[in-house]
Design brief:
This protein is of the alpha/beta class. The chain has a single domain, classed as 4-Layer Sandwich (Metallo-beta-lactamase, Chain A). The chain is built from 3 helices and 14 strands. The protein starts with a strand and ends with a strand.
Length: 246
């Protein structure tokens, strides 16, 4: 029986690196200042040497909001010429290069042995489902059930319908690892999108995100939404390593 592994680093907010057997994936890189003087994944940033861990490096940005897209990522090709960028179509770029792969929602792209599917967001941009080295990885970007207290009932219903419609599409696919927002600004409703996602999509590993420096939100979510079939990660600090074995 084959064993499939991933080594995940929490970088900040929605930013993660995922190292698989043959690839390094980086999602929604934002904060580029390290925890201390050393620039590496263990200190919450992508350093020059990290980009040389694998020949195959894929860098994803789900949309152009500044907390999901830092233009510094475009400079990383200096350290690894094999980098491929997978970028949402709403991102404004200074120019377009052959290693920039621009995607809209409901598209599929194959880069070597990696298959990437996109889904629509309930904000802007896309979500990514990545099939790589025997693993299926979902990164939600800003896709969530955004239940704001001050919204009108009409707005809340529209959001709920849009969210559940896209969840039905995502649930048609198997997901090993899911990165999903648990935004503390939603107050009492911070958990509703993630909980619904877990119950319908049933990922093996659920990693909370989109809480800036408020890591305690992940523990609050884990304590509230406990499921036997899904491991929920508590994020404690930048650079934290999460190991996944399938």
């Amino acid at each position: 029986m084959n064993e499939y592994r991933a080594k995940i680093h929490y970088l900040y907010h929605d930013g993660f690196s995922v190292e698989t057997k043959n690839h390094l994936l980086i999602f929604d890189y934002y904060k580029d200042s390290p925890v201390n003087e050393v620039r590496n994944l263990n200190n919450g940033v992508v350093g020059e040497e990290d980009l040389k861990i694998k020949d195959n490096v894929l860098v994803f940005s789900s949309h152009g909001h500044r907390d999901h897209f830092n233009p510094v990522i475009l400079d990383w090709i200096k350290y690894n010429p094999n980098i491929n960028y997978v970028l949402s179509s709403d991102i404004n770029l200074p120019d377009y290069k052959k290693n920039y792969n621009i995607l809209w929602s409901n598209k599929e792209l194959q880069l070597g042995d990696v298959v990437i599917k996109t889904f629509d967001s309930t904000d802007i941009g896309v979500c990514y489902l990545v099939e790589v080295d025997g693993l299926s990885i979902f990164h939600a970007g800003d896709f969530n059930w955004w239940y704001w207290k001050d919204d009108t009932m009409e707005d809340k219903l529209e959001m709920e319908l849009a969210f559940k419609k896209e969840i039905r599409k995502i649930a048609e696919h198997y997901v090993d690892i899911a990165f999903f927002p648990t935004d503390p600004r939603l107050d009492d409703f911070f958990h509703v999108g993630g909980e619904y996602f877990i119950d319908k999509v049933k990922p093996k590993l659920f990693i909370p995100m989109h809480f800036w420096a408020k890591c305690s939100t992940s523990k609050k979510f884990k304590d509230k939404v406990e499921r036997d079939f899904c491991e929920i990660v508590e994020i404690k600090n930048r650079g934290q390593v999460i190991d996944f074995v399938k």
